[in-house]
Specification:
alpha/beta, Rossmann fold, 7-stranded mixed β-sheet, two-stranded antiparallel ribbon, 7 helices, 9 strands, about 25% helix
Length: about 230
């Protein structure tokens, strides 16, 4: 059974997370999504609903699905008639009402999902043919910056995939992270029935004089097929 790892950290996380307009990682995702309006959108692992509410404010109907009851409690403190929140595992579709979505987002959440292929299958199943799927993650190739900012991979190295905890003070030191290689991400989504359309690697600079590093990876895909 999937574990709701954020339940024990929901208060801290809701206070820590930036609003989308103040978060360059969220803006990277929203820029690749584009100026969508009048669409039905799935927010996979929506957390406290910040991306869902932003998309609803642009004139879309959004269904946010998350395993964490504690994070959804924060989301429901900001009711919006265009947003529906569902407590469920995003790697299953038992919660789905059968109405296809035009698009799906997964904002910095696929690292929290143990079953990547299952989450991709959910997106593929619930999207209409030609629907879009945009997501971002910690860049699988992020090398870190000393002891203060850990790399995206565990001590055994980049090719050691699986869940690990950085031991740091941030999100990944509290709830952990599933590290996957870049190839695993791209091959899994492609095998799930999607075609890559666009990518973004918003640069992050650790400090004065340091070179920009690839801390995050954002992608947009198109669902293949006619069924």
């Amino acid at each position: 059974m999937a574990e709701a790892r954020y339940d024990d950290h929901a208060d801290w996380y809701d206070d820590w997370a930036f609003a989308p307009g103040d978060d360059f990682v969220a803006l990277s995702l929203l820029d690749l999504v584009g100026p969508v309006q009048g669409q039905r959108i799935l927010d996979l692992a929506c957390g406290q609903g910040r991306i869902a509410r932003h998309l609803a404010a642009a004139g879309n109907d959004v269904v946010g699905v998350d395993l964490s009851a504690a994070l959804l409690a924060f989301a429901r403190r900001h009711p919006d008639p265009r947003v529906t929140y569902v407590e469920a595992d995003v790697c299953t579709t038992g919660w789905w009402d059968g109405r296809p979505f035009d698009g799906a987002v997964a904002s910095m959440s696929l690292m929290d999902v143990d079953d990547l292929a299952g989450a991709v299958a959910t997106a593929a199943t619930t999207l209409r043919p030609g629907g879009w799927f945009a997501w971002n993650v910690i860049h699988p190739c992020f090398p870190g910056d000393g002891e203060d900012v850990r790399p995206s991979w565990p001590p055994a190295g980049y090719f050691e995939e699986g869940w690990w905890n950085t031991g740091g003070p941030g999100v990944r030191g509290r709830v952990g992270s599933n590290h996957r290689t870049l190839s695993t991400y791209l091959n899994t989504v492609t095998a799930g029935g999607f075609t890559l359309e666009a990518t973004d690697e918003p640069p992050w600079t650790p400090g004065p004089g340091g070179p920009p590093l690839p801390f995050f990876l954002t992608t947009r895909w198109r669902r293949c097929g006619s069924r």
